TrEMBL record:
Subcellular location: Cell membrane
Keywords, ordered alphabetically: Cell membrane, Magnesium, Membrane, Metal-binding, Transferase, Transmembrane, Transmembrane helix
Name this polypeptide is given: Undecaprenyl-phosphate alpha-N-acetylglucosaminyl 1-phosphate transferase
Binding site residues for Mg(2+): 169, 237
CC annotations in GO: plasma membrane
Keyword Transmembrane in record: yes
GO molecular function: metal ion binding; phosphotransferase activity, for other substituted phosphate groups
Keyword Repressor in annotation: no
Cofactor(s) it depends on: Mg(2+)
Any one Gene Ontology BP term: cell wall macromolecule biosynthetic process
Membrane topology label: Multi-pass membrane protein
Pfam families tied to this protein: Glycos_transf_4 (PF00953)
InterPro entries: Glycosyl_transferase_4 (IPR000715)
Length: 392
């Protein structure tokens, strides 16, 4: 990763700036919300027990904007901005739009349809200004490259963005989960982008996703100390939807603009499309979203109806503590996301081995309550009583 054309120090500075600004801004935002009485009340499906401020997305957006402004001033990263490429301008505009929608929703609770319309407008703005799919490399057969026209690329990009916005928003139901998953998924796509920068000698198309992900990892890392259990502030829809939009933008930029047919078919990186890599990075939130829609439709409910059937709720009911639930989900996302990325940067055998070990570790961590229960039952002849955690 340290080859010529890979601006590691500059991207590291962007990441640290995003983290520092977000961390420092979150405290004042929380204080303002507490003084003005803007706190999230307890709902039946919530796992927290104290009313908590819920506009952390404002601090996260501040960190993102400052990081992007810094990146634009660094000579090594100027290839990621206009006039070379319009993508960063599109991302800033889309991020601003989605944060406005989120802030209004956090303050006044928009209806499901109104919020969806706002999400669609932000997604269309993002794709219209330049973050669109243009090519798909099919890694099977003769390695066909599918070319999308402007309308097709914008439509697919907008739909993908709305799906990811809602996926992250749906999974944001437990302290530290959305911020941690955003940091992990963003880190995986960042590693992938750095691989492309290295292999394609600083390809212009790999600069925007690298910058987006560096800033995304930074704002999530900066917010997490305030949000990890017990959370002192929530990111709210403004923060969760911002993470979803940035993940979508980075994913589209990394997979929709890089022509993988430049690689030889003997190189294993040609066998894993960027779409598969970024798909793995955001697999868990998307699975949870699809599962929620199917579950609610089967009950005759609207897909927007809130419930306590998400993956994190089920892990809590399984017997995991609040923090262990978050760590289990962190482990699964890390195993899948970095497992997929590892195939592009290390030998195949090593990647398979590391991925298999990570998946087994995640599975064992998930099964801890069941294993503990069996051991206790076998020793005493009866199933132990649960203590009744306040977080269940």
């Amino acid at each position: 990763m340290g080859g010529a054309g890979v601006p590691l120090r500059e991207l590291g500075l962007v990441l640290l700036t995003a983290a520092a600004i977000t961390y420092l801004m979150t405290g004042p935002v929380r204080s303002l919300l507490v003084r003005t009485g803007r706190v999230a009340e307890i709902r039946t499906r919530d796992v927290h027990t104290q009313p908590t401020p819920s506009l952390g997305g404002l601090a996260m957006f501040s960190g993102f904007i400052c990081a992007v402004f810094l990146a634009e001033q660094l000579p090594a990263l100027t290839r990621g901005f206009a006039p070379v490429t319009p993508e960063m301008t599109a991302v800033v505009a889309g991020a601003f739009a989605i944060v406005i929608v989120g802030l209004v929703d956090d303050l006044y609770e928009l209806g499901a349809l109104t919020k969806l319309i706002g999400q669609c407008l932000a997604a269309v703005l993002l794709s219209f200004l330049g973050v669109t799919f243009t090519v798909f490399f099919v890694p099977f057969g003769d390695g066909t490259t599918l070319i999308l026209d402007q309308v097709q690329g914008m439509a697919v990009a907008a739909l993908f963005t709305v799906v990811l916005i809602n996926a992250v928003n749906f999974v944001d139901g437990i302290d530290g989960l959305a911020a941690g998953l955003g940091m992990i998924a963003g880190g995986a796509i960042l590693v992938y982008s750095l691989t492309i920068l290295h292999d394609q000698a600083g390809a212009v198309s790999a600069y925007p996703p690298a910058i987006i992900c560096a800033a995304l990892v930074g704002i999530c890392a900066g917010f997490l100390p305030h949000n990890f259990e017990p959370a002192r502030i929530f990111m709210g829809d403004s923060g969760a939807m911002l993470i979803g939009l940035l993940l979508a933008a980075a994913s589209i930029s990394a997979s929709g603009k890089i022509n993988m047919s430049l690689y030889g078919t003997a190189d294993f990186i040609a066998l894993i499309s960027p779409v598969m890599v970024v798909g793995a990075a955001v697999a868990l939130p998307v699975i949870d979203l699809v599962w929620a829609v199917v579950r609610r439709a089967a009950k005759g409910q609207s897909p927007a109806t809130a419930d306590a059937g998400h993956i994190h709720h089920r892990l809590l009911r399984l017997g995991h503590t609040h923090r262990r639930t978050v760590l289990v989900l962190y482990t699964w996302v890390s195993a899948v996301a970095f497992g997929a990325v590892s195939f592009s940067i290390v030998p195949v055998r090593f990647a398979v081995g590391v991925t298999a070990i990570a998946v087994v570790a995640a599975a064992l961590l998930t099964a801890v309550p069941l294993l503990s229960s069996r051991e206790a039952t076998g020793a005493s002849g009866r199933r132990p009583r649960r203590s009744g955690s306040r977080r269940r």
